[in-house]
UniProtKB/TrEMBL annotation:
The keyword Repressor does not apply. Pfam families: Amidohydro_1 (PF01979). This is Dihydropyrimidinase. Transmembrane segments: none annotated. Belongs to the metallo-dependent hydrolases superfamily. Hydantoinase/dihydropyrimidinase family.
């Protein structure tokens, strides 16, 4: 009988297809076999536990300068440490280009920071704020072909947003070279007009941040970007869906055959606009963009996840401390326009979702695995290495205690933020032991991975990133009088 490097024995392995009692054998950092009575030179006893694929968090801001020039609170070491404690073994963060930056230099700088600090595996979305000819014709094609297969664009925020024509330019490059377009899609004019009007009339508290991002600004931007996608036959991912109407727009577009993917985040499933209504500036801790909405939106988003209209739940980890280095950088009495947007979420994403979906029975363990690991790995080109416990995959495995109960506290996380927007919640189900490529990086409440032991994950062109082949008539030489536009 083959003796493997390590066997995790006695657990129940969860996949998108079901749950089965079996051992997991690991050899040379890969899953080598699944079965019964497997033998290993080392073993982990997982009796009574679940064996889940390491989480894939595809939307994280790490060691990143914001569009407003503020560095967030987490380094790659602190952010990925926090991720590991929450059962996540792969993150996709941003290589954030600001105007005047050379995109290739940006990626090199972020890769150097991650190589020095990350304790889990990582990839990058290419954040485009300056689509110069140099960016579009040289750097972006080269970086896509090197394996950076996703691009982030903004439709709002003065210093980073792209105009419609620029968005189309970036989308055309993605189409030609094989990459996913990911978008923060809100209508810039509506937000700016509403925010200026609120501040001019003295409505400056954090709770008015939500009012400044009207629901319709999400709906309009979704519709606009979806029609860009339809025109160019270029797949898109809509980030952080927050409204029932936004989910409905996506459902209709997918029904039309447009290649649209979408995510939501725990803040839109578990928080509402009322969480910002707190004394003084306390509500700033719950400020994010788009803002949390209403309980009716929560229900619509849960329904969208169950139906497959939304395919992924990411954290949108955007960490800012509640002090002068972060949320209060503009002084002791900022208006909501001067407060950094974002919440910590890398560590709590999986426990929050497991408690709601599995422990409380809102959904199923299979759906939990799909939304948090398998689907993001497939959509972003990390599969089959990541996102599933399968022979040949990286041995990213979480031994999960389904019965452990934990009360979240402000000082219980392992990031560098100093507060927890979900503090006070009692959750059932918690990651106990975490393996990354066969190495035990977390056990007995102790991190065992060295900074820099995570690896960059370069990606191929996944099926999700490929055009459908259904050309708009304007791009079809058979109906546009022979014009060659692609």
């Amino acid at each position: 009988m083959t003796e493997y490097d390590l066997v995790i024995k006695g657990g129940r392995v969860a996949s998108t297809e079901g749950v089965a009692a079996m051992d997991v054998a690991i050899q040379d950092g890969l899953i080598a076999a699944l079965g019964r009575e497997l033998q290993g030179r080392s073993t982990i006893d997982a009796a009574g536990k679940l064996l889940l694929p390491g989480g894939v968090d595809a939307h994280c801001h790490i060691e990143q300068l914001s569009g407003g020039g503020l560095m967030n609170a987490d380094t790659f070491e602190s952010a990925t440490r926090s991720a590991a404690f929450g059962g996540t073994t792969t993150v996709i963060s941003f290589a954030a280009q600001h105007r005047g930056d050379r995109l290739g230099d940006v990626v090199e700088n972020y890769a150097r920071l991650a190589a020095a600090g990350a304790v889990i595996d990582y990839a990058f979305h290419l954040w485009i704020s300056d689509p110069t000819p140099e960016t579009l014709e040289q750097d972006l094609p080269r970086l896509i072909e090197a394996g950076h297969r996703s691009i982030k664009i903004f439709m709002t925020y003065d210093r980073v947003r792209l105009l419609d024509e620029q968005i189309l330019d970036v989308m055309m490059v993605a189409r030609k070279y094989g990459a996913m377009i990911c978008a923060h899609a809100e209508n810039h004019g509506m937000i700016k007009w509403m925010a200026d009007r609120l501040v001019a009339r003295g409505y400056v508290a954090p709770k008015y941040h939500g009012v400044s991002h009207p629901r319709v600004c999400e709906i309009e931007a979704f519709e606009r970007l979806i029609r860009f996608s339809q025109l160019l036959d270029q797949p898109i991912m809509l980030f952080h869906v927050s409204t029932a109407e936004g989910a409905a727009v996506i459902r209709r577009a997918r029904g039309e055959g447009i290649k649209v993917f979408a995510e939501t985040c725990p803040q839109y499933l578990f928080l509402t606009a009322q969480d910002l209504d707190r004394p003084g500036l306390e509500g700033a801790k719950w400020m994010c963009s788009p803002p949390p909405r209403a309980t009716s939106d929560q229900e619509a988003l849960w329904r969208g996840l169950e139906l497959g209209d939304l395919q992924v739940v990411s954290s949108d980890h955007a960490p800012y401390r509640f002090d002068e280095s972060g949320k209060l950088a503009a002084g002791a009495n900022p208006d909501f326009k001067q407060i950094a947007n974002g919440l910590p979420g890398l560590e709590t994403r999986l426990p929050l979702l497991f408690d709601a979906m599995v422990s409380q029975g809102r959904s199923s363990l299979e759906k939990f695995v799909e939304l948090t690991a398998t689907a993001p790995a497939k959509i972003y080109g990390l599969h089959p290495r990541k996102g599933a416990i399968a022979v040949g995959a990286d041995a990213d495995v979480v031994v999960w205690d389904p019965d452990r109960e934990v009360v979240l506290t402000d000082d219980g996380l392992h990031d560098n933020v100093g507060y927890n927007p979900f503090a006070g919640r009692r959750l059932k189900g918690w990651p106990e032991t975490v393996l990354r490529r066969g190495d035990t990086i977390l056990a007995d409440g102790t991190l065992k991975a060295a900074p820099g032991s995570g690896r960059l994950q370069l990606r191929g062109c996944a099926p999700s990133m490929r055009p459908t082949g259904r050309l708009s008539p304007e791009f079809d030489p058979g109906s546009n009088f022979g014009a060659q536009l692609l």
